[in-house]
């Protein structure tokens, strides 16, 4: 026997109507603002792009053992595609949008890869960071962009100062960096601070 659905009370119906009107007003104001910012032709395309699922990728850690990474990803190799729009750091996406296995330590106790939004790596690509640059990363946690920057820097000449004001986020950032860089490389290239202003 199917149970009949209870009709919505007038009070609940009015509440749902107000919520819908409020949501529509917020979206209207949001769209109006960004249409002025980006233009009436470009904004709808940007909005549609933002609604699409995030394209995650794996950024291979240059300090990890290549053999260990290949062995770990061996079963996935046919599903991986290199993101050629990010030429300076090896990043791969899944053709089938399947999930990646979690990162792990290699034989030298360095984490093999970092999973992140491909847009984060692309943002660092746009900076055109050179191996001997000295870079300041503001609001650096959780660490994906920080690691992408460190992948581009030369250990002998490059230097990264990562700033994160929130102590818990700064602690997590340090853990990420320590997990992906050998200790001697970290000492040469990376400083994490918590400055405000």
Structural Rg: 23 Å
Q: Residue-averaged pLDDT, rounded?
A: 91
Helix content: 40-55%
Question: Which percent band covers the strand fraction?
Answer: 15-25%
Count of beta strands: 7
The coarse overall form would be: extended
Euclidean distance between termini CA atoms: 67 Å
| Structural class computed from helices and strand pairing | alpha/beta
**Strand order within the widest sheet?**
2-3-1-4
What's the helix-strand series? HHEHEEEHEHEHHE
Biggest pleated-sheet summary: 4 strands, antiparallel
Tally of helical runs: 7
Low-pLDDT stretches: none
How would the blueprint of this fold be written?
Blueprint: H1 10-38, H2 43-51, E1 56-60, H3 66-73, E2 80-82, E3 91-94, E4 113-117, H4 118-126, E5 134-138, H5 144-152, E6 159-163, H6 167-180, H7 183-189, E7 190-193
Parallel strand pairs: 5-6, 6-7
Antiparallel strand pairs: 1-3, 1-4, 2-3
Question: Can you tell me about this structure?
Answer:
With 197 residues, the chain is an alpha/beta fold. It has 7 helices and 7 strands. The strands form 2 sheets. A 4-stranded antiparallel sheet has the order 2-3-1-4. The longest helix is centred in the first third of the chain and has 29 residues. The termini are far apart. The mean pLDDT is 91.
Could you give a short description of this structure?
This protein has seven helices and seven strands; from the N terminus they run ααβαβββαβαβααβ.
């Amino acid at each position: 026997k199917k149970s009949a659905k209870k009709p919505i009370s007038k009070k609940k119906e009015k509440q749902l109507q107000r919520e819908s009107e409020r949501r529509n007003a917020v979206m209207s104001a949001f769209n109006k603002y960004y249409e002025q910012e980006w233009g009436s032709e470009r904004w709808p395309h940007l909005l549609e792009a933002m609604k699409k699922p995030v394209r995650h990728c794996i950024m291979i850690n240059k300090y990890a053992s290549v053999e260990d990474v290949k062995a770990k990803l061996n079963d996935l190799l046919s599903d991986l595609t290199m993101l050629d729009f990010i030429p300076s750091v090896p990043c791969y996406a899944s053709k089938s949008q399947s999930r990646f296995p979690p990162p792990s330590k290699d034989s030298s106790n360095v984490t093999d890869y970092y999973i992140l939004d491909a847009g984060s790596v692309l943002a660092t690509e746009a900076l055109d960071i050179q191996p001997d640059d000295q870079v300041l990363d503001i609001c650096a946690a959780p660490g994906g962009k920080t690691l992408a920057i460190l992948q581009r820097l030369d250990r002998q000449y490059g230097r990264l100062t990562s700033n994160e004001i929130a102590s818990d986020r700064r602690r997590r950032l340090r853990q990420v960096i320590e997990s992906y860089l050998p200790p001697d490389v970290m000492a040469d290239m990376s400083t994490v601070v918590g400055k405000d202003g």
